[in-house]
Amino acid sequence: MNDLLQFAVIGFSTGAVYAVLGASLVSLHIATGVVNFAQGSVALWAVWQTAALRANGTLVLPLGSVALGDGPMSAWPAVLVGATSGLVWSLAAHLLVFRPLRRAPALGQVVASVGVMLFIQALVTLRFDRDTMGVDPGGLVPLPVLTAQTFTFGGATIAVGNLLLAGLAVAAAAGLAAYFRFTRTGIATKAGAEDEQALRLMGYSPDRLAAVVWGATGFLSGLTVVLAAPAIGGLDPVSYMLYVVPALAVALVGRLSSIGVACAAGLVLGALQQILLFLSTKPWWPSWASAGVGDAIPFVVVVVALFLLGRGIPERGAREAGALPPVAVPQLRPLSAAAPLAATGIAIVLTSGQWRFSLVMSIVLTLVAASVVLLTGYLGQISLTTMAFAGAAGFALSKLTTNAHVPFPLSILLSALVATALGIVVGVPALRIRGAQLAVATIAAALAIESFVFNNPSLTPYTGNLIRDPSMLGHSLAVRQGTDVITLRFSFMVLVMVAVLLIALARLLSGATGRAFLAVRSNERAAAAAGVNVPAVKLLGFALASFLAGVGGCLIGYSRGQLSTASFTVLVGLTVLAATYAGGITRISGAVVAGLAGPLGVLYLFCTQTLELGKYYTLIVAAVMLLRVVVFRPDRALMPQGAARVRRLLAPFPSIARRHAPTAPAGPPADAVHEPESAHAG
Amino acid sequence: MNATSPTAETPDASQAPDAPAADRTDDALAIRGLSAGYRGVPAVRDIDLQVPAGSILALLGPNGAGKTTTLRAAAGLLPVLGGSVTVLGTPIAGRVEHATRAGLCLIPDNRGVFHRLTVAENLRLARSKDGYGPALDRFPQLRGLLNRRCGLLSGGEQQLLAIARTLLLRPRVLLVDEMSMGLSPVAVQRILPELRRVADEDGTAIVLVEQHIDQALSVADEAAVMHHGRIVLTGPAAELRQDRARIQRAYFGD
Amino acid sequence: MPADPAGRDPAPASVPTAPSRPALASAPGPAPSPLLATRGLSVRYGGVLANDDVCIDVGAGEIVGLIGPNGAGKTTFVDAVTGFASHTGTIELGGVRLDSVPAHRRRRLGLARTWQSGELFTDLTVAENLAVVVERAGLRGVFDDLVGRRRRGRRTRADPAIDPAIDQALDLVGLAASADRRPEELSLGQQKLVGVARALVGSARVLLLDEPAAGLDTEESAEFGRELRRIAVAGPGVLLIDHDMALVLEVCDRLYVMDFGRIIAAGTPYDVSRDEQVVAAYLGSPVTP
């Protein structure tokens, strides 16, 4: 019992981070309707900033750096500057990204916040290096700020610092909650999220009100993480970015509307993780579950939150805001399919070594990205699990080929079916939620799969999951032969398989299945009223998408000879989503772009080898995606509007026109006069 | 566009759109030659309306005539594509901030009350020195509802709240869009006299967009009828009330 | 247009009621076994009784009007009948109980509706909007898409002439020429008609039309009324909600008047329109075209 108490209090350090990040996420959702995946990245920058200041007083800026004083900065000023850097990043994200997107559909907002998340993280890796700071980032640690005192309570050793962190979390959440409840500006902020126009008519500026919340949450998140980091452990350029996943889970427990519940859930989650960590060292604990349990909990929390708390998490506004990216339905013409196929074949023959390998990776990534096009572009379900599905199939492939000796084409089919089953399991939550919340559920699922399966030593031995080379009818299709890193046979096997699947996908998307997907995407209520079984269609979409991703995962696995978990991390998954969105998430050609630009693809190789810009790669992808989301918005069609208007002006009712042919009324377009209604929706 | 020339139907030549009157200094709201619409395409053209302080104008017309567009442009929610809107001499260049600062308030047709806030919170949003006491004095019915979430109020109560909240801002010009939408006629009959009182006692200029013609004319001083984005008829409300055939003709645009 | 159901349906308690409500007139002779019959249908939204003990019959080939002021609960009734609002009481279509049947199955059983705000699939063409009703997505659909022969020409975006029913339905509402247009290219009135066509297609037995004529002018509205007659002659029953009294009085066989979630009067258009109380309180614009 004492042990449990002791570990629970230890867990308050991470718990405080979850609590404040979660309270911040809820606050931002209340104020703006945005679910901000970048909350952890903002805090990540703050931690590094504080560490740099305390090492030698360097203030690192996105470009350049400033030396504040000659030597290390003292603790509290450094903490304050670090937390303020969180405030600045948060405000910048508001002004440059989220404010322009305030009427964009959920997909645009989620993708944008994922873009900000990746962008800041990539910038942390780039900027906090030896050149800028003058110290080795590997040697940097978050120095303690809070007291190291302990006391004994009921036999348990309690660290005062951890209690202070918990107190800070509670105070931060209470402050945020009081702001929304008792202050006029806080009330106005809530009102602005409901009806921005009505608030403007009362003389408020919704943007300024939102900015207050962005700034405050950025500061509080930065402050908490900076103070908690020494207790949590070392410094790396990723970890706090992904703290947003448990924070999102507790925000969902608070139904994205209760700051207090989110804070409490965060503290409990932190404590629970430590207790489980402690229990997993016990001899009776099953060895298969000894790793990754802590990271799997957020997904469990999300699922429980979604199912026990019911469907009552309101999306902001009852109606769909803004328009989704327009869809380009694939037109299958023999030539348009054959030409790129032939070109790719020739390119495979003409290249060799590394370049051919990256070309084949591009082909495989195209398939993975095509699954994103199907699920997110066509069906409108924002899933961040794609790479995890691919990895799961690769994992199954390893087991099937090494343990069960399943022969080649069957091995891919069975492994992809494993991914399909997993996809359906993850898709079940999608029946109850949509938009940003589905993104939360799926990223939690991806993290759980990554930690519990890929990084679990009892499932994935340190020697790796080997995959036997494919062969068919006695001919080896192995990726390597002698000194050849990638054989022609393997390359063409991949090309043929991907081409067949893409053609099948094009047929699906241009047929009844595609129409049903688009109907669900554009209006679920109306789809149900048109006789479409919406849950079944969604599950079908998840099944098909995870099948495609699964085949992609198998091909990646075969290309390595073993399952390399690094290919399937959450980060890679987010990068693929970013690349697909940048390429055009509603068209198969967008998947091709994503394949070329995705990790280890042709453009990646070009970027890293030829231009030697490898370390900028994630930054570039994130920046391109942000530009695509914010500046070149796909939901703003440039051309067709004018033409449509002309036709509308000239298109009175046919039945009326027949009777009044000479004097057809050419009034103002009907929708123009009725626009106020739709304008309210934002 | 088959609207008749407005002058033919307009009894008061000084308010005819084609002959803009010399500035009347007591006009709280002056709309001159206004064209406004969406995405650069005008939905209303050449609108001329002047409303003196303490006077009520009923803006009538069939669905889609452009009444809402006119109000939204006057409130700065839509860019002005031509002409001008001034509130007590201050031009509103398509900016809401200008309009609210000049003392103009618009109650939109969705009433603009915040459903997730309580009645008290809604009232607090009006930045008034005296708190929201005056609103409760004027509409005592709201007193018992202060802690109720606005989304649970009836349509009539919501409209009452919207008006009460707006009046706390002491508007010099008040635009009310489709006040009676979703209200029972009985509820409308109780709210309209309140607006008359506001005009008479506070000297507020009011523009009322209404479907219920008779009720609107009963409280208005002047009336204007829109059709196909233009004003096709203006006149004193009492006169038009006696001559419904003219309104009816204006409604059908012939 | 109210966005919030709670806002749309005022609390009956706090709004003054009409001085004396007309007694519930017994509806004159609906068909002995109506196609659609609701009994004791009640819907509650967060403490507000939005529909209270509503009993409505719609017979085959019959056009039944449901009128009443905004916020009376008419749309709520349609939501409940078509499976979009949970309710108590019973709903029968051709003698089959539908109370616990999900919305999409009710549509396949022949209960079709339109929406006040159109709710068309903006990414699909007009014909494709209708095709969604006729087609069945699912594993079978996947199989057909992958290996099925494409009947009647290519089944592509520009030409989803899968079923002649689509052409027929578009013809009925006079929009055959717009089959390949996007909804956004049509006027609001035409968009409403696409909604009607989408409700018509695919063996609809009862149509619930929620303000289908709201975007139409007087002439168009009258033309729509004639189209509605033609549709009803072909067999399906129609429940028509509209504010255009000229249209309602012209085309409906019977009328129900709803206020504060309850049916307060029922009868022939002649009876209802002569009911002074109903006219004064609920139909009440003095300029009625």
From TrEMBL, chain A:
<feature type="transmembrane region" description="Helical">
    <location>
        <begin position="490"/>
        <end position="518"/>
    </location>
</feature>
<feature type="compositionally biased region" description="Basic and acidic residues">
    <location>
        <begin position="672"/>
        <end position="682"/>
    </location>
</feature>
<dbReference type="GO" id="GO:0006865">
    <property type="term" value="P:amino acid transport"/>
</dbReference>
<keyword id="KW-0472">Membrane</keyword>
<feature type="transmembrane region" description="Helical">
    <location>
        <begin position="110"/>
        <end position="128"/>
    </location>
</feature>
<keyword id="KW-1003">Cell membrane</keyword>
<feature type="transmembrane region" description="Helical">
    <location>
        <begin position="564"/>
        <end position="581"/>
    </location>
</feature>
<feature type="region of interest" description="Disordered">
    <location>
        <begin position="661"/>
        <end position="682"/>
    </location>
</feature>
<feature type="transmembrane region" description="Helical">
    <location>
        <begin position="75"/>
        <end position="98"/>
    </location>
</feature>
<feature type="transmembrane region" description="Helical">
    <location>
        <begin position="539"/>
        <end position="558"/>
    </location>
</feature>
<feature type="transmembrane region" description="Helical">
    <location>
        <begin position="438"/>
        <end position="454"/>
    </location>
</feature>
<feature type="transmembrane region" description="Helical">
    <location>
        <begin position="6"/>
        <end position="30"/>
    </location>
</feature>
<feature type="transmembrane region" description="Helical">
    <location>
        <begin position="238"/>
        <end position="254"/>
    </location>
</feature>
<dbReference type="InterPro" id="IPR001851">
    <property type="entry name" value="ABC_transp_permease"/>
</dbReference>
<feature type="transmembrane region" description="Helical">
    <location>
        <begin position="588"/>
        <end position="607"/>
    </location>
</feature>
<feature type="transmembrane region" description="Helical">
    <location>
        <begin position="261"/>
        <end position="279"/>
    </location>
</feature>
<feature type="transmembrane region" description="Helical">
    <location>
        <begin position="148"/>
        <end position="180"/>
    </location>
</feature>
<dbReference type="GO" id="GO:0005886">
    <property type="term" value="C:plasma membrane"/>
</dbReference>
<comment type="similarity">
    <text>Belongs to the binding-protein-dependent transport system permease family. LivHM subfamily.</text>
</comment>
<feature type="transmembrane region" description="Helical">
    <location>
        <begin position="613"/>
        <end position="631"/>
    </location>
</feature>
<keyword id="KW-0029">Amino-acid transport</keyword>
<feature type="transmembrane region" description="Helical">
    <location>
        <begin position="209"/>
        <end position="232"/>
    </location>
</feature>
TrEMBL record, chain B:
<feature type="compositionally biased region" description="Low complexity">
    <location>
        <begin position="11"/>
        <end position="20"/>
    </location>
</feature>
<dbReference type="GO" id="GO:0005524">
    <property type="term" value="F:ATP binding"/>
</dbReference>
<dbReference type="InterPro" id="IPR027417">
    <property type="entry name" value="P-loop_NTPase"/>
</dbReference>
<feature type="region of interest" description="Disordered">
    <location>
        <begin position="1"/>
        <end position="23"/>
    </location>
</feature>
<dbReference type="InterPro" id="IPR017871">
    <property type="entry name" value="ABC_transporter-like_CS"/>
</dbReference>
<dbReference type="InterPro" id="IPR003593">
    <property type="entry name" value="AAA+_ATPase"/>
</dbReference>
<dbReference type="Pfam" id="PF00005">
    <property type="entry name" value="ABC_tran"/>
</dbReference>
<keyword id="KW-0067">ATP-binding</keyword>
<dbReference type="InterPro" id="IPR052156">
    <property type="entry name" value="BCAA_Transport_ATP-bd_LivF"/>
</dbReference>
<feature type="domain" description="ABC transporter">
    <location>
        <begin position="29"/>
        <end position="253"/>
    </location>
</feature>
<comment type="similarity">
    <text>Belongs to the ABC transporter superfamily.</text>
</comment>
<keyword id="KW-0813">Transport</keyword>
<protein>
    <submittedName>
        <fullName>ATP-binding cassette domain-containing protein</fullName>
    </submittedName>
</protein>
<dbReference type="GO" id="GO:0015658">
    <property type="term" value="F:branched-chain amino acid transmembrane transporter activity"/>
</dbReference>
<dbReference type="GO" id="GO:0016887">
    <property type="term" value="F:ATP hydrolysis activity"/>
</dbReference>
<keyword id="KW-0029">Amino-acid transport</keyword>
<keyword id="KW-0547">Nucleotide-binding</keyword>
<dbReference type="GO" id="GO:0015807">
    <property type="term" value="P:L-amino acid transport"/>
</dbReference>
<dbReference type="InterPro" id="IPR003439">
    <property type="entry name" value="ABC_transporter-like_ATP-bd"/>
</dbReference>
